Every structure is written in C-alpha cells, then in structure tokens.
Amino acid sequence: MRAALFRRPGPAPEVLSVEDIDAPAPRAGEVRVRIAVSGVNPTDWKERSRPGRLEGIAFKVPNQDGAGVIESVGEGVDPARVGERVWLYFAAWQRQYGTAAELCALPADQAVPLPDGAGFDLGASLGIPALTAHRCLFADGTLAGRTVLVAGGAGAVGHFAIELARRRGARVLATVSSPEKAELARAAGAHEVIDYVREDAAARVRELAGEGVDRIVEVALHHNFDLDAAVAAPNAAISAYANGGRTSLALSQLMSNNVVVRSVLVYTMPRAALRTAIEEVSAALQAGALSELPEHRFPLERIAAAHDAVEGGATGKVLVDVSEDAPPSTER
Fold first, then answer.
1. Which domains are assigned to the chain?
2. Model pLDDT for residues 86-122, shown as the tens digit of each residue
3. CB neighbourhood size of 171 (10 A)
4. Residue from 308, 230, 226, 267 nearest 110 by CA
5. What is the pTM assigned to this prediction?
6. Calpha distance 22→18 (Å, rounded)
7. pLDDT, tens digit, for every residue of 68-90?
8. Which helix (H) or strand (E) holds 181?
9. How far apart are CA 32 and CA 180, in angstroms?
C-alpha cells in the first residue's frame, strides 16, 4: 500500500515521505479500513516533531482521524461489517499505523459507522475535534438553558462545540479574531460572536450574559484566563484543551464563585465519557446537526504540506485525499 511515514522526528518536509509498504493485517478484534480521506490535527504534527515517538519501531504512519470503508475484519468481528462506511478516531494513538495510508488496521470500536448522507470529508473531520468538544461541554453536566462561551469559534474544536452545544439547548457565544472567522462561527450556529481584536471581549460577554457564562471551551488559557475568570458565572467550568504555554492564575479569581478549571486531553479521558461522546457525536451526525468546515485539500504525496498547513494555523480543516479506488461517499 502507499503510505506516508516518518522514521525520525523533525520538520515535515525533512522527515515525511510517501512510500510503498506492506499493509497491516487486522488482528483479533480489529478491522482494516480502506482510507478515503485522512484528517490532520495539531496533535499529528506535534507527535511527529517530538523525540521518543519511534521507540521499538522503524517508522510511523501519522494521523489520528480519517474515513473510509471496512475492507476486512479480524477474528471476533462480525463479517457483516465488511463494506461499512466508517469514521475513525485514535488510529495512531500508541499504534504504528495511522490514517495517512491506503489501509489502516485498528480496533473495531474505533471505526464508527458513518450515516448515509454524511460524506467522507465530514467523517474525517470528526475524531479528535468533535470528541474533544463534547468532553469540554459535558464533563460538568447538562447544557439545557445554560450559556456557553467558545473561544476560537472558527477552529475545528470550536466549530463542533458550537454545533453540539446548540443541539443540547445552550445559548452559545463565540470569540474570534477576524470578520471572516466571525462568519464561520455564525454559520456553525453561534448566537452571538465577539471579535476580540476589535472590541473589549470581557465587556461584550458581560453585556450579552449579565450573570456570566456557565461553560467555557478554551483553546488558549494562557492568553484568556483573565477574560474567562471575569465572565464566568458562579459554579462555571472552564475546559482548556490546548497547551499554548504556562498559565498564571490567582485562585482568588475563581474561588469566590466556585469556578472549576478543567484540563482536557481526549486520549486519556475516562472510557465511559469517551463512549458517551462517540454516541452523542454519532447521534448528532445522524440528525444532520454537524457540518463541514472550509477545506484545505492535499493529495497524499503532499502530506508534508498538509502537516505544515495545520502547524501554520490554517483556518478550517486540512484533509488528505488518500485512496482513489475507495467507494464513493454519499454527500449531503
């Protein structure tokens, strides 16, 4: 099979190549998926860049998320799943073969049925962003009647956080850094959008939510902590899912209102919470409540450019087209 891989950590153009390698066979409890589209996330370039990620293996195929069709199954997996359209998550987590290849073998429960009407592009965009968004939103209870602030509402996590929160009855505010990103957040369903470059974000949030916000989905806690603390309602939760740098905080800013600061890493979230997130994302997908972001597309041969686009902060979703012979997707 054709696969992108790296044999040492380093910059994408220097270490990523596309080669012909042996395809992985599905082991007991696994399925093998012919990948149509691979999604690229910040976690993918970060893992490629870190030393110590290749201990005991000669190479690694990157990318956690993707979508395609189950081609074969291992022992203990229902053969009826062959031919099923699926979206994948955690494909490369503590495993050698990710989704940047024509074929990927992984545990059967990490290949989730993709409903009719949902395309491979949307399926490949879910995984890390949608599951992270769900955990940030629901780790501290239900959302009906509550107000949610999504920092970075035009990003992938922010996009799905807006859609998932609206689906469960929340009022959603989002912060962005440009008019173009504001349009993306509005398209996802944000009730109100605040451009923090052009206006006083804390004052505007307080104007829109006089009693404060109940949940904050935070992409940059090191920059936004003072803002978050200023707009948090009593008993609010701030869920930070990205590590942008050291954060200094004064407990006094949180204690009087019993505000929780929660760190979220999707890979190690409680298993029960992960199962619930998968069920909820699948239900939202089935209901047509999730949508695609603007796409930046690359062929597999340009995997390095795809990784660089994500590392450079591309707005929207970076996708890699992998298998030309994958069965066609049913688009919305």
1. 2-126+290-321 (3.90.180.10), 129-268 (3.90.180.10)
2. 999 999 999 999 999 999 999 999 999 999 999 999 9
3. 19
4. 267
5. 0.95
6. 13
7. 999 999 999 999 999 999 999 99
8. helix 179-188
9. 39
